[in-house]
Amino acid sequence: MKLSEKTLQQEYRYRGKIVNLRVDQALLENGATALREVVEHPGGVCVGALTEKNELLFVRQFRYPYGEVVTELPAGKLERGEDPLEAGKRELLEETGVIGKDYQFLGDLYPSPGYCDEIIRLYFCRVDTIGQSRPDEGEFLEAERIPLEQAVQLVLENKLPDAKTQIIILKIDALLRAGKLSYQSKIESGKDRPVFPAFGGENRRFTIPCFDLEIFIKQKSFPRNPGNSWKTFSLIYFI
Fold it and tell me: Is the alpha carbon torsion for 198, 204, 85, 140 positive or negative?
């Protein structure tokens, strides 16, 4: 199988400030056609900032779609054409007052690949200096620190349901245990991301079938972007 679909027609049903919604007609491999509802999103960035005491910086904020307060790592959406690394630095400073150092790219995350084209760029950094937070107008946040070990436990107990937050916590924990975060790489631009050795040498994009999990478990190494899907990485980590 080629595992491909050809776009035949696109129709925009909604254009918003952040997202657009379109309905496409796609040609399938067997010659049939199908409708595909697609949410266009400019993408986002999320940063796991670790203190000298191995604490991660979090923010708590009310998330309207879920109607509840959600605890997350500092994150934000990208402006069209914005450099992801610079956006990550900005969001970290605005939400926590922290300036980070030794940034490392942790991979791309596809939060909902079934209907949305959003890509979230994930980064790790060490805390350099701590100052005053500068939230955007109309943005209400509470910052807090949580030890990494406790954060992992909160993920396991389903007390941190945010996908990007779970992935960064688990990646940082796995990389620290493997001694991979000692790897130094200077990132000048989000467009020139380093090949991160902890997750393979190629920027591969695929979903890992169940029958391949044993291979990755035995090798104890994963591709940098295992399916780029939070559920794929989480499943492998927990197994």
Answer: negative
| Ramachandran class of 221: left when φ > 0, alpha when ψ lies in -120 to 50, beta otherwise | beta
Q: Which long-range contacts (CB under 8 A, 24 or more apart) does 173-181 make?
A: 173/148, 173/149, 174/198, 174/237, 175/124, 176/148, 178/220, 181/104, 181/124
Beta bridge partners of 229: 110
Q: How many distinct helices (H) and strands (E) make up the chain?
A: 5, 10
Instruction: Cite the active site residues.
Output: 137
Q: Is the dihedral of CA 209, 215, 220, 222 positive or negative?
A: negative
Q: What tens digit of pLDDT does each residue of 174-230 get?
A: 999 999 884 343 444 444 443 333 333 333 333 334 334 444 444 444 444 444 555
Residue 58: name the closest of 158, 138, 156, 133 by CA: 133
Render pLDDT for 129-151 as a digit per residue (tens, 0 to 9).
Answer: 988 777 666 778 899 999 999 99
Q: For the chain, give the longest Cα–Cα distance.
A: 59
